[in-house]
Amino acid sequence: MDQDCLFCKIVRGETDTRFIYEDDTLVVFKDKYPHRPVHLLIVPKTHIRSINDLKPEHQDIVAKMIFKAPDIARNFKVDQEGYKLLFNVERGGGQIIFHLHLHLMSG
């Protein structure tokens, strides 16, 4: 983990962020500045800076992020109406927190 990374601090419980879901690999919570009525972040507990920093050993983490998304969408009752999954990559791609995360948005 990165001591200064906001998402690492959230994962460590150093903020008042409420988790919608947590397991040994991931946490899911609401985006503090939502762009849609449903805007959630699926965040690995392992600090991975960006998609550009993925290594072969991260395959299971990224797969779990994507495979968990439909469950979360069902819990928020947006699985049938539709939702968007989005990775922002680097500043030019909209990434502002440099800890890998997957946006789940709907509405």
The CATH architecture classification of the domain at 1-49 and 87-107 is 2-Layer Sandwich
- Percent in helix: 10-25%
Mean pLDDT level: 97
Query: Which descriptor suits the 3D outline?
Result: globular
N-to-C SSE string, H for helix and E for strand: HEEEHEE
Helix-strand layout with pairing:
Blueprint: H1 6-11, E1 21-22, E2 26-30, E3 38-44, H2 59-75, E4 84-86, E5 102-106
Antiparallel strand pairs: 1-2, 2-3, 3-5, 4-5
Structural account:
With 107 residues, this protein is of the alpha+beta class. The protein has a domain at 1-49 and 87-107: HIT family, subunit A, CATH 3.30.428.10. The protein contains two helices and five strands.
Keywords:
2 helices; alpha+beta; 5-stranded antiparallel β-sheet; 107 residues; 21% strand; HIT family, subunit A; globular
Summarize this entry quickly.
With 107 residues, this protein is of the alpha+beta class. The chain has a domain at 1-49 and 87-107: HIT-like (HIT family, subunit A), CATH 3.30.428.
